[in-house]
Amino acid sequence: MNGARLEDNKDKTDPGTGENYLEKKENTVNIIYRRTEAPAIMCSEDTFLRLSLRSSLEKTPLPETEDTQDTIKQFLSDRILKAARVVYSTLMERNPGLIRDRKHHLKTYRQCCSGKELVDWLMKLNDCFQSRSQAVGMWQVLVDEGILSHVKQELNYQDKETQFYRFMEAEFDLNHTTNEKDSKDDELQESLSLLVQMGPDALLTMILRKCPNQRTPEDLEVIYEELLHFKAVAHLSTSVRKELAAVLVFESHAKAGTVLFNQGDKGTSWYIIWRGSVNVITHGKGLVTTLHEGDDFGQLALVNDAPRSATIILREDNCHFLRVDKQDFIRILKDVEANTVRLEEHGQVVLVHLSTYLGGSASSSKYTVMSGTPEKILEHMLDTIKLETNGADFIDPSVTDFLLTHPVFMPCSQLCAALQHHYQVEPSEGTDLEKTAYALNTKQKVVKLVAHWVALYGPLLRDNHVAFEFLEKLREAVMADSRLSSMLREQLRDRRKTKITENGCHNLTKLNQKFDWFSAYEEPVGKLRSIKAEDKVLYEIFKPDHKSVTVMLPVDASVNNILTTLVDPERDYVLVKMNSSGDRVQLKLETTAVSASLGVNEKLFLCSASQVEQLTPVKEQLGPEKSTMDSLEQMCSKDMASQHTSYDWELFMAMHEVELVYYVFGREKFQGATTANLERFVRRFNETQYWVVTELCLCEDLVKRAILLKKFIKMAVVFKELKNLNSFFAVMFGLSNSAVQRLNKTWERLPNKTKRIYCAYERLMDPSRNHRAYRLAVAKLSPPYIPFMPLLLKDMTFIHEGNKNYTDKLVNFEKMRMIARTVKTVQQCRSQPYVPPSPQKGLTERMFSDTQAIRLSTYSDQSLTLRNAANIRQYIQNLKVIDNQKKLTQLSRAIER
Ligand code: CMP
After folding, report:
1. From CA 850, how far away is CA 878, in angstroms rounded?
2. Which of 174, 356, 537, 568 has the fewest Cβ atoms within 10 Å of its own Cβ atom?
3. Residue 23: what are its φ and ψ, rounded to 5°?
4. 579: which DSSP letter?
């Protein structure tokens, strides 16, 4: 069952530094963002492969062997066929009348269904369908497999009354159903969920196969969303991507070795690789490079109006491309230039705009900032704020993008000074009345923008003395002007109301007291506190003899600070970070916040330079020697997952969104910034992942181990139900660790149903097409939910590495917009408060209700759950893990040869 696995690129080079960031020891692979001295995201080999960052420096991976590809294909086809049999038998049982002779245009079509009726039926059958197109996608899966066939063999499924389809009953033996043991309802749910998962892909392929002029606005939106994840178009503006969506053509080739075009040919199209890879070969040099999924080629001949500079040959079977023909390519790129407006001041370009066509009337277009000087971008942002007399002011989303990313290109002091300047600006032209009106208008806009800034950053601005001083001054100025103060009170009242609804408490009395920017940001009582840069924390530092000293120092203390606190600065001491495998990194004196960036079992060591090589890990780094099975037996998976999620929420909420920006661009570049909360959250992911592997590898009893394995799968189910995707993936990655995957005897003991659930979830981890399966699943989620944080960080790193901060000395605002888009995802996830689940019987229970699988605990009853909650919380907050892959593999080999 675990055999089929997709290989991704084994990129071993840090795209930023060119350093080798892949440290591979046995099965351990650490992704280390050295540049930022951030914590390693420790992943199993598979995790790494799945998360590997694409870059132009990619190494050429070996193609999957035909065998592997065939196995994967067969594996999927078998599952689809099984699902089709279940759906077909349900249709025959419940609505056999849908299959009948149909007449259209004087012709009779024997024993078929109408496209529309099949969609209607499916939508009624299950409320998991949110739109008709989702159901269409599902039927398209069956059409693609040939199980459902259009009466005229059309390839695209159509949701229409007069398009008829037949089930290929005889060819596929659709009346044959297996697994009588399982209840039909469960089987139907599983089948639908498989088809729902596969539907979006089939739908997208179907849309791409359509003739471009037949694509609907929804179709274009689907393609556009897909394009967002392609490196080839990542640098293009939204409008260009939208235009591309309208003209892209799907092209596929079945056989490796097919020549797409030859060097010297006339250039007719530009290609993006959607699936597969190609070799680029030139006459003089032979194979010059290999291009992979997401890469593009064929632009040179079009741009330079020259012959093809290389021959392109398919490197594997079944490659899919998105093709743009020359005419469209030239038109769209030419349009980019034609619609670009450059604003100059004193002979220097200060702002570059792109006119975006919004559809509808010709005049309905909007300017999007592409790049500019920080001051000019700010000025433009103030211009976009619309003050309405009815109070419904409009703040353009790009203002949020600007504010979320300003630390990258406009430090706080510069922003405050510029805002101060705008607030005080006195127009030199016009009548007195006009001047007064203009000044008031500008002041109002500044206040609006600042209030929005405070709303986004909250207490971070209170802790930043430059910002705080500016806000205090502005507050006094605003208070002195009744027109402004009433406007601001109104705005804050609105925000406070929202906060109150979110928190469900507080009273409004404070609103009438002296105005305070931060009145809406009291620390929630009883919740995990956010770590601030200047907070003092305990540093535990070991010596070569494994004795330790502890000191209280600020989170952002530098290595130099630590050393001078501990030892005579004249002496030759160094601070070393070492993980449980004994890998050591000698820390530079200027490095800061080393404690926050420690990996799961990493520790700090103090020694003389000559002692570094002799350092060995301390005992507690090695992790536990015994499994905690006794405790685990006392806790039911649902309660554990629920407590785990509550704790994850606290960790997640303690993190400020802007920490993502600091983390990706390098915390040390931002004065007074901390990423400690984000790092703590990322560490939790690694810890959970290794906890799963550790517990399974330490459990020597086969029967208990199988029960434990089932328990972890069940936890994954609950995590998914609770929309805690971070821990869902942590558990799934733990289960896919090679030390766990090789435990065949344990996997064999799993009930079939559990195996099937695990397989279905494995699909969500499929890294192909930039984790499309996961992205589609998340796109449907409503907040609150916890996203899969390593993937978000990967996305942001991808954007950061692939785009410069400045273009022609101007801030590359397109990049900032892309960065802010991911940051806003986190905002969106937390836009609703998390409410812990009620203990009623949920889907998980139904899925795992077979009694033959022994329930580990009978403690799921509510009162006991409450009694146990504190114990469970205590347990899951203090997970002890082995994070040394070599050791885990040894343990795994010892329990199962
Ligand atoms: P074009 O000349 O239109 O067709 C061949 C394509 O191969 C070329 O555009 C580039 O997109 C792509 N290519 C990638 N690497 C190279 C290379 N080193 N030399 C030539 N072409 C390359």
Report:
1. 32
2. 568
3. -110, 110
4. -
Confidence class for position 764, pLDDT limits 50, 70, 90:
confident
- CA torsion angle 555 556 559 563 (round to 10): -50
Atom of ligand 1 nearest to the CA of 301: 3
The protein residue whose alpha carbon is closest to atom 1 in ligand 1 is 298
Ligand 1: does its nearest atom lie under 6 Å from the Cβ of 263? Answer: no
The mean pLDDT of 651-664, rounded to a whole number, is: 96
The half-sphere exposure of 815 on its side-chain side, counting CA atoms within 13 A, is 23
Nearest-CA neighbor of 805 among 795, 794, 818, 789? 818
Residues 6+ apart with CB under 8 A from 719: 641, 644, 645, 725, 727, 728, 731
How far is the first Cα of the chain from the last one, in angstroms, to the nearest whole number?
19
> 């109006």: which residue's tokens?
305
Taking the centre of ligand 1 as the mean of its atom positions, its distance from the CA of residue 645, in whole angstroms, is 49
Mutate to test the pocket of ligand 1, among 272, 300, 304, 323 (most ligand atoms within 8 A of CB): 300
| Residue 174 CB less than 6 A away from ligand 1 | no
Q: What is the whole-number distance in angstroms between the Cα of residue 313 and the centre of ligand 1?
A: 12
Out of 259, 289, 297, mutate this one to test ligand 1's pocket (max ligand atoms within 8 Å of CB): namely 297
Give the chain's radius of gyration (CA, Å): 30
pLDDT of the residue at 374: 97
Antiparallel, parallel or unpaired: β 311-314 and 319-325: unpaired
Please state, as a whole number, how many other Cβ atoms lie within 10 Å of the Cβ of residue 661.
25
411-465 pLDDT per residue, tens: 999 999 999 999 998 877 778 888 888 888 899 999 999 999 999 999 899 999 9
